[in-house]
């Protein structure tokens, strides 16, 4: 067949014109050149080279951050506040702000004047504390209770002798005790603390953890004097936190002896209450006090707060944590104390 005798399809000419007007996608793709990223080294197959590149990039970022901070300090710029769980904390309706004598806190002040600890804060009585243990306490638990008697003035440590908590409450009220502290244990380690305020309650149950005795801190119990310590209650901001702070403060005498230079601190942070025991000394050269930890140290986590004295069956709970931590909390940024 001869090519001269072939007829040209007119429709094919229209398609050619359309193709000429529209740019080809292949040419459009090749026009943009994609360069490798400076911060992503996944295209490097050698693991050693990839690790070196990542380390070099991290060092450059840290150096640039340090130079920017130095420049900001020289220029006198504002100090940056880092975002933490506490700074992003969800607002609680019961948060106490300002002084107790403010008009906003008038209702709270009336509640404090008529609660179970009002008589103590009016200096109507001196606290007398009974410290006891679970049945058959181990050596560490007994030593921990003995060290609590050195910290809490006018306190005594006694064995339980297999008596129930309700029975102990009745006998303690008859002997004019104002508080009972029961230290529980599990696997030869203290794991719980029950504080009962007498005679009308309330009762607080804490999880006890991170217990370090005086010997664990390489200290001697002879360094602890018999002077009554000062008590610092820090960061108890909510209505529930104020109740717990007042309860912990009511264990100690309301008139500290400053001559002994002893300080007991209950610091609340993210609903964990950290206990520390220090002796301070004034340094005239530096103009700042120097602290020496005496021990013991431990951490408390509130489990429940019950109205009245201990009654696990028919007691009325003011606050109770149920199940696991994440089952109760709606957010990691919500705190109760």
UniProtKB/TrEMBL annotation:
**From which domain of life does this come?**
Eukaryota
Compositionally biased region (Basic and acidic residues): 17-31
User: Where are the annotated segments for Disordered?
Assistant: 1-36, 62-86
**Domain Brix stretches:** 127-311
Entry's InterPro entries?
A: Brix (IPR007109), IMP4/RPF1 (IPR044281)
Stretches with biased composition (Basic residues): 62-72
The protein, known as: Brix domain-containing protein
- Native source organism of the sequence: Heterotrigona itama
Query: In the record, what lineage is assigned to the organism producing the protein?
Result: Eukaryota, Metazoa, Ecdysozoa, Arthropoda, Hexapoda
